[in-house]
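Consider a typical record:
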Amino acid sequence: MTRFRRFLAVLLGTLAALLALHACGGRGPSPAPTRDYRAQETQVAAKLAATLTAKAPPTATMTRSPVRPTSTSVPRATATPTLAPSLPLSGEQLAYVRILQDTSTNIVLSDEAQQAEQLLTHFVEQQNMCDVTWAPDGESLVFVSAHDFVHSRGNERNVFVIRADGAGLRMVTGDYVDPQAAAGPYVTLAGQVVGCQGAALVAAQGVPAPVATDNTGAFELIGVPVAARWVRAICPGGTHVLQGDVDLALSEGSNPPVSLEVQATGQGWTQAAMSPDGKMIAGVAYRWVLDAEGNQEHTNIAVLQDVASGERRELTLPEEMSVTSMAWSPKGGIVVAALSGAKGVALWRWDAQGNSLGELLSIANPDDVIYSLHNLAYSPSGDRIALSRKSWDWWGEERYKADLLVVAAAGGDPQVVVESEWGVAASHPSWAEDGQVLYYQVSVAKAGDGCANTEGDLWRVRLPAEGVEAPAPEPWRADGRSSLPAVRPRPTATPAETEEPEVVTP
């Protein structure tokens, strides 16, 4: 334990410099380490996760206080959350991500009817959230986070599920096994980490805590379940964090030492959605390697994963297109993905077995702007899809913005609901239960790495009736510390009781 604590102290200092260059959101150094061993371990994992994020393309210089969407009045950020006065309280329960006073990032459940909030997660990491949504039954939240990533095989970010009361947190990706549920017998695993200059962290499936290697890379991991299928190593330092993992086939008694080679490569998740029957996850995973110039080269992957077995299926994308978001139709086993490419963007459909059903929508890029689509969200009735369209003005000032759109689930021209000014991102929409109000996030527009900018405000807007002037959006939480709103659903019908709308190709 003493050696591990000494290692933590050294590691925290080393990672502080890396965080200044690579952490999401560009936040400053974290608080001094606590004496709590488990908290220290989690903080180390968080700092490692921050160095594992993608290198974003260059962005324009922006101030912290962006100009708000053009159709809104500009509220001043306040130290405490504020409720919008002109939109009536709807009694919604809304989960969202909040940066707490200790700078940790956690999920909060807000109950409008009771005017009360409950903290659902108790993480110590900063900037650890990428995506939050509800399972269709409204009983649990599905989110993507870098929390405790050291206990997953190779992943930097994983998909989690947590009940609406904050209990039952579990990691459902990364070949994770809860250490409390890992059955014995247990063995001691010795080995060597190769390719790391200095100390590394080593963890195995089902082991409660990682251990630190010595400066030569040697380690001894105690309490490894014989059934453990993998062991991984993480090596901080330099420009990129190095990682590696190998298969295990252990037996009772002594086992031969293992060799773990670490390299500049990584993988994880940025977004996930639960199927209506709760059996499948559709989402966006990624892999990265270094190119010849030493820059991170990312590949996004459209994934269907079985929740119970962990079996994973990677979907085939149209040529020269990349996936950024996926969502399940509430009316059946249909999954829709947002795709982006050099010529334009599209919405594409698959069935639950991964068979392509073709294009739903396409938008060509203007001459001087490159589009990408993000944050798909079906309306409660399943007849419309809300999404965020990011614009990159690459030709002139190298600037970004993101608008909110709504499109019919059967296809057709999209409707611009919130149009932002350059430097502002309206993103991550979530439908109120009446299907007429959208909650969404407003933050500084950046190139991004697939994760949300958690330094934002929450707004809501009522969709205009036909022939009526669109009402102005209203701030719901204006504190610069809130993001990723997700309205809790109240299902009224099972998927078998409804029909999928007919697809009309524009």
